[in-house]
Amino acid sequence: MKFFLISDNIDTQMGLRLAGIEGVVVHERHEMLETLEKVMHDDEVAIVLLTTKLIELCPDVISEIKLKQKKPLIVEIPDRHGDSKIGEKIDRYVSEAIGVKL
């Protein structure tokens, strides 16, 4: 099983490539959705890493995939430009999933 990165900047891609994780750089919503669709049908990919900025392009689609798809696991990673509040996003995601505010 492999990781795959979909990033909005080359620095993140190069850093993860050094760790052996392949990926692509995209900037538009349609590019990201096309790439994600291809990766989701690749049986070797178990975990897809997405930068925060790309998740913000289509949070509704990403949330739907996370809730309904068993594989691949989609993980948000902050990039060097981000002022991400991952903890708050996780709280919101769990609250939506189980219907209870944390």
TrEMBL record:
<dbReference type="Pfam" id="PF01990">
    <property type="entry name" value="ATP-synt_F"/>
</dbReference>
<protein>
    <submittedName>
        <fullName>V/A-type H+-transporting ATPase subunit F</fullName>
    </submittedName>
</protein>
<keyword id="KW-0813">Transport</keyword>
<comment type="similarity">
    <text>Belongs to the V-ATPase F subunit family.</text>
</comment>
<keyword id="KW-0406">Ion transport</keyword>
<dbReference type="GO" id="GO:0046961">
    <property type="term" value="F:proton-transporting ATPase activity, rotational mechanism"/>
</dbReference>
<dbReference type="InterPro" id="IPR036906">
    <property type="entry name" value="ATPase_V1_fsu_sf"/>
</dbReference>
<dbReference type="InterPro" id="IPR008218">
    <property type="entry name" value="ATPase_V1-cplx_f_g_su"/>
</dbReference>
